[in-house]
Design a protein that fits this description.
2 domains, single chain, 13 strands, alpha/beta, 7-stranded mixed β-sheet
Length: about 375
Amino acid sequence: MKSNIKDKITAIGFTAVLAAVLLLNIILPDQDKSVGERRALAKMPKLTFSSVIEGDYFEDLEDYAMDQFLLRDTFRAVKSSVRLNVFMQMESNDLFIHDGHIFKLSPEVNADAVSFNCRKVLEAAKKYWPDAKMYYSIVPEKNTFLDSSAYPGFDSELYNSTVAQALPGVQNIVIDDLLSINDYYLTDPHWRQEKVIDVADRLLSVMGNPVNDPAAFAENTACSFYGTYHGQLPLNVDEDELVYLTGDRIDGAEVIDCETLRPDDLNGSPVDVEAMLALIEAGKSIDVYSPEKLEGMDPYDMYLGGARALLKIYNPAGTPGRELVIFRDSFGSSIAPLLISDYETVTLVDLRYVAADVLETYVSAAEQTDVLFLYSQTILNNNGVFR
């Protein structure tokens, strides 16, 4: 008798919990995005005859139910914690924690992708800046500095030799010896701007520029944040602090986002110094830092506005006729302000978002141009990364 009562109470309680969860999922408004995962969440699909017949509706409905499920982030955290701490697995979704840092498992070197991507960048640079001095520097991934033999390492020797063969005649600027694990965020793959002044100085020095005076920079804390890796592995780790540097050169610089320009802004001319001055006068420039991005999905986008296809920085204190062109990925966003130095203009090209053929509309070679290929190991190691 008592057993039957317990069974009934258990069944009723379980049913009540399911009903409450279902009711709350119906009542609560849908979320537009997941800040932790850095992505938009699925919306309720539109029910149509064709979507039902083709099966798309039910697939989309499943995605919607998974994305909008109540306490979804809590369940994701529990799942990761159980995998790592109960079943003692080495990773969860290719991510793991070591000494307070979140890491992603190193991939195998894709030599074909590395070679192809390097040649594609070099081809674009030689097309538009054929007489420029050319340099390249590879940003080592955070795993390079992992103090543990329990996880597979990245074959940097194979990677670096592949890059060197694909970029003949381009001078390599090695920066690995200047970096350590403390120069990277705890919860994100990127390096910290305030930690790479010495990296910027080496790049500048090799390219024939005066180095930065560290005393000329002021450190400013923008916010505390959790990076991309924490969104994918939502466990209890320390927050990061987003720090940005200011100084006379950075504060005085003006940035032109070429994606936002209309045809009548240019009148068929490239974005040279004269055009940049006119655009600045017309109020079409932006600042080096975008504080409004701190409220978005990725606070790291504060540096130069985040993912941008083509940016041009004007430095009124620079030497007339001197230009630095940086072919870059997201690591370039935070270090580019430290490379302004004596250059009159700094052009940042991200071939992930703009095809090389489109550059002809916006660029022209200055009297003295240096070209720097600055990429992380991960980007060049992927197929189909450039347009």
